[in-house]
Design goal:
lysine biosynthesis; 18 strands; 4 helices; 18-stranded mixed β-sheet; Diaminopimelate Epimerase, Chain A, domain 1; binds ligand LBFN2T5F; 276 residues
């Protein structure tokens, strides 16, 4: 089977994007891992699959797969690339799009300057909404990792995040603690691990060890989760500039029961065809 794809990225968080409307796409986890493989395949952090909407009032459905082949609920940088993709491929000329994901509907908008703003939905904090094994709902939890007790906040942006504040993102033990947090027994569906350095009340630096993909150059939902956690901890005020290793995102949040808005770039690198 030959598959057409586009290689895209949002701040270096890179994607293989597939049009599942004009070509039939049904991939096994092995085929997904092959596409994501940086040595034997195309190489990416996530694979995005654009499909027809399954309900009225929605323009498209898009599905997200991590490099390890697991299907996940949400992807912020992917949502921005999805919008560029459907425009570049001539699948729509609407600038405001409603798109179904595994965890609800999100609403991206293509701005005049080429950036994309995405209404990422309302963040959730209850342990069973993450899911995170704990009886109470508090802003900071202790998590035992490698003989240390880390202070984490948990946030669901549709997908699960554990965010901690670190003195410096440059020296934070992302490679060592990241996989231990990702696979911690108190996160039954695993978790994305965020390491946030507060610069001032409107600026943070962030690194994220992503569930199913390892550390990426940027994580959109991770940026939303970090800003929300920072505001809940009383450290930040909206809007917040989030500096990742791949560049900057702007995140705004109006508080409890309000959606998070994320603005940033989306780039197409090349298009190709691969035999599976
Ligand atoms: N890179 C993404 C998040 C992709 C999914 C994540 N790894 C998960 O398993 O939840 C983003 O930009 O949000």
């Amino acid at each position: 089977m030959k598959l057409k794809f586009s290689k895209m990225h949002g701040l270096g968080n890179d994607f293989v994007v597939l049009d599942g409307i004009r070509q039939a796409v049904a991939l096994t986890p092995e085929q997904l891992r092959y596409l994501a493989d940086r040595h034997f395949g195309v190489g990416c952090d996530q694979i995005l699959l654009v499909e027809k909407a399954s309900q009225a009032g929605v323009d498209f459905r898009y599905r997200i797969f991590n490099a390890d082949g697991s299907e996940v609920e949400q992807c912020g940088n992917g949502a921005r690339c999805f919008v560029r993709f459907v425009h570049e491929q001539g699948l729509t000329d609407k600038r405001e799009i409603r798109v179904e994901t595994l965890k609800g509907i999100i609403a991206p908008r293509l701005e005049g300057d080429g950036k994309v703003t995405v209404d990422m939905g309302i963040p959730r904090f209850l342990p069973n909404q993450i899911p995170f094994l704990h009886d109470e709902d508090v802003v900071i939890y202790n998590l035992d990792v490698a003989d240390e007790s880390l202070e984490i906040s948990v946030v669901s942006m549709g997908n699960p995040h554990a965010v901690q504040v670190v003195a410096s993102v440059d020296t934070a033990p992302v490679g060592e603690h990241g996989p231990l947090i990702e696979n911690h027994e108190r996160f039954p569906q695993r978790v994305n691990a965020g390491f946030m350095q507060v610069v001032d009340r409107h600026a943070i630096k962030l690194r994220v060890y992503e569930r199913g993909s390892g550390e990426t150059l940027a994580c959109g939902t991770g940026a939303c989760a970090a800003v929300v956690a920072g505001i809940r901890r009383g450290l930040l005020d909206s809007p917040v500039r989030v500096t990742t290793r791949g560049g900057d995102l702007n995140i705004a949040w109006g508080g409890v029961d309000r959606p998070v808005l994320m603005t940033g770039p989306a780039m197409t690198v090349f298009s190709g065809e691969i035999e599976l």
